[in-house]
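Exercise (ungraded).
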Amino acid sequence: DGGITQSPKYLFRKEGQNVTLSCEQNLNHDAMYWYRQDPGQGLRLIYYSQIVNDFQKGDIAEGYSVSREKKESFPLTVTSAQKNPTAFYLCASSTGQAKNIQYFGAGTRLSVL
Amino acid sequence: AQSVTQLDSQVPVFEEAPVELRCNYSSSVSVYLFWYVQYPNQGLQLLLKYLSGSTLVKGINGFEAEFNKSQTSFHLRKPSVHISDTAEYFCAVYHFGNEKLTFGTGTRLTIIP
């Protein structure tokens, strides 16, 4: 089945630690996105990538980093500079022909120990 | 500035009653409009979309929405809700030339037996 796989489902971060969230898609989509979801705030865009080896900052990129070395993969690193990382993180992808229709993974819930 | 407003953060509805979830947007350019549904601890699933053509669009699970350009609205409706419709619903707008989706803050729909 085609889809977007996010792992792990739950993740815990210690003070000063960097953690990486995985996002893999087998839909052959060109564009991929990372969102952060907090209660009552909807989804906010962290980073997005429209093509391999290229990515752009979204609205809340500070404290996060990404890479796009392969079309299928778009990992997100939450760095120690992100002082409030507790949230639900969602990865999405879309085709080059209809970039506006985005398909989502099941999410990763990150908590701070 | 482009924005999406979902005025109702929570909507309780009795089972088999009709429901309307409101969405208004602001944009100076053409838009595509979407409704997504999110069940607890899951990703977002596309419910329906308006790209062009008829202003009344039908989606999955018996939902429909009407695009009103003059009122810049895209309200979601269902004539008779079921317990399984309990979820959070997000309105999203794609602004031409922006390459990004802007999400509303979500409406939590609770069905009362």
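Further reading is listed at the end of the chapter. For now, observe: DSSP finds no helices and twelve strands in chain B. The interface with chain A takes residues 9, 32, 34, 36, 41-46, 49, 90, 94, 99-101, 103-106 of chain B (CB under 8 Å).
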